[in-house]
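Subject: complex prediction, re-run

Hi both,

The earlier run crashed halfway through, so I resubmitted it with identical inputs.
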Amino acid sequence: MKKIPFANPEIVYREDFDDWAVLFDPDTAETYGLDETGSFIWKQINGKNSVADILQAMPAEFENISDDAGSQIEKFLGEMEEKGLIGYRK
Amino acid sequence: MEQTATKTGRPPLPECGYYLNSLYFYITEGCNLRCSHCWINPPFEKDNRAGDFPYVDLKLFKHIVSQAKALGAYSVKLSGGEPLIHPEIHEILDYIKAEDLRLAVETNATVCTPELARKIKECRNSFVSTSLDGPDAATHERVRGVKGCFGATLQGLRYLVEADLNPQIIMAVMRHNRDKMEALVRLAESEKAGSVKFTFVTSSGRENDIAKDKNKTLTIEEIIETGKWIEKELIPSSEISIVYSHPMAFKTFKKAITKGSGSCGIFGVIGILGSGKYALCGIGQTILEMVFGDAGTDKLADIWNHNPLINEIREKLPRNLKGICADCIFRKKCLGSCIAMNYNHYRDLMAPNWFCQEAHSLGLFPERCIIPGSKSEYPGKNIG
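This time it finished cleanly. Structure:
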């Protein structure tokens, strides 16, 4: 069964001119930085895209996608889930 | 019950729940320069001796450090006045080395010698910052108030470089030297300094000559614009590391997140003044309510664990920060950037960062850092 990540709707997403972005959790006042790749992945999390869909979208934005990109995305999403930034739909 | 060391080598967490990480020693009240913008405004000592003014002697220094280590302290910062004119500076550096403490030194370097530089280097993770307010004697000495101090600082800087300390040059930017910032970076490159830091002198409630004349300092708008110029033009033009003192909200997200620069260290720091008093930091020299006790008679553990003002800060920060800080996405990381400076400006421990608040009142605070739906209001105090 495909797991579909969705963003916590309370989380505030802000971008900077240097391609970095920040996620702000109003409940905890914690801020989390996202580099260009993390920012791209966050924007793909729309409650419809699976990990495979996100992986498929990456070559249009980035060159030299590594072979283990899928597992890296899963790890990244797992960390965001632990922090309460995303959840999963099954 | 007997306390035992933790597995990490640190002592057990103090009763208050916070380790004391670092001691900020303003080890002498005397200074051999007369800087027009100095917020501590120490007495001038023309003979390069600190002995005429209150200073923390070696015995008291050891007494404080031994108590602080039991609370978790692993580093000390030496500032002043001018720390290198302290009459027992050699012995103090020997003791810091023997205790394996990390060391930071803020000095004008005018009396630095090869031996002092070597002793600083021998301490763990030692870091030195040296003030240089321009690339030439006229610009620098106009700020520092003593003829010949430019050459003395440059010589001291060279000793620090030769000792492989990678000293940081700190330039206090005002109107008269704003156009010399790039030249200072080039000087730092040629002298092989480790980095350059720009701080911006403002008229924020400081009772000194510069503060009283707003024409001598940059406006909030100019400071913000200069920060953007540093980021976009000066930093890419140099191999040397360049930092600037703007609050976190005015830095790039990458810098704010990865460097963590501009955050107040209040949860792990206590200041010790030349008079031997414990204080929030150097602010205790000018604001008496920020003095917590006497190192000669009071136990540091009692102050660290039970002082009502320190505990009030712990309880309220960052949740009760006011004004624009309450509405900023970086409030938990930044902690108001500098509680002492904010208190100095507003006489309110939970006051917003004065620079951010004034920028906000001028419509210049970065929108990208404001939490949606916020209404930050705080009584204004026109500065800059």
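The interface with chain B takes residues 12, 14-18, 20-22, 24, 26, 28-33, 35 of chain A (CB under 8 Å).

- K.
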